Amino acid sequence: MTILLEPTQNLTELYDQDYCLWLETTAKLLETGEFYQLDIPNLIEEIEDMSRKEKKSLESNLEILLMHLLKYKYQPEKRSHSWKYTIIEHRNRIAKTFKYSPSLKNHYREVFAECYQVARKFAANETGLSIETFQRESCFDLEQVLDENYLP
C-alpha cells in the first residue's frame, strides 16, 4: 500500500500544514515499511519531544507532591482530606509513570533536589509562610516521597 501525497506536497511540508495528517501518514508509512518516504528530521524531533514531555510531567507531579508534603508537615493545623487526596493522586501518577517508563526513575533521582526547590517556592506562596520556613535541603528522602504509607 503506497501512501500518496498531493503531487506538489512532501511529508516535510505536510508537517507544517496539517500536523494530524502528518502523524497519520507517518504511522502508515512505518506500518507498511515505506521508510524511504519518512520525514526523518521531524520524526526525530517528535520522538525527542515525547521524551521531554514525559520528563516534564514527572517533574510537575513531583513538584506538586513535594509541595503538599511540605504543607502537610509545616501546617498541621490546616491538614485536609484534599491535601491527602492530592498526595495520593500525585504518588499514583508517578507510580504509573515508572510502571510504563522505568528508566524515568533515573530522571526522578536527577531532578529531585531541583523539584524540591520549586516545591519550597510553591509551598511558601500557597501558605503565606516565608520560604525560609522550609528546609533548604529536602526533609524527605526519595523513598519516603513515593511511599504510600508515609505522611510527615
Textual characterization of the structure:
- With 152 residues, the chain is mainly alpha-helical.
- It has a domain at 53-146.
- Helix content is 69%, strand content 0%.
- The protein is built from 6 helices and no strands.
- The protein has helices at residues 11-17, 19-32, 40-74, 81-100, 104-127, 142-146.
- α1 runs antiparallel to α2 (19-32).
- The longest helix has 35 residues, at 40-74.
- The model has no long low-confidence stretch (mean pLDDT 93).
Measure the end-to-end span: 59 Å
Beta percentage is under 5%
- How many helices? 6
The number of strands is: 0
**Helicity, as a percent range:** 55-70%
Low-confidence stretches: none
Mean pLDDT metric: 93
The coarse silhouette is: elongated
The biggest beta sheet, please?
Answer: none
Order of helices and strands: HHHHHH
Tell me the Rg in angstroms: 22 Å
Overall SS class: mainly alpha
Features:
mainly alpha, 6 helices, 69% helix
List the helices and strands and how they pair.
Layout: H1 11-17, H2 19-32, H3 40-74, H4 81-100, H5 104-127, H6 142-146
Please sum up the structure shown.
With 152 residues, this protein is mostly helical. The protein contains six helices and no strands.
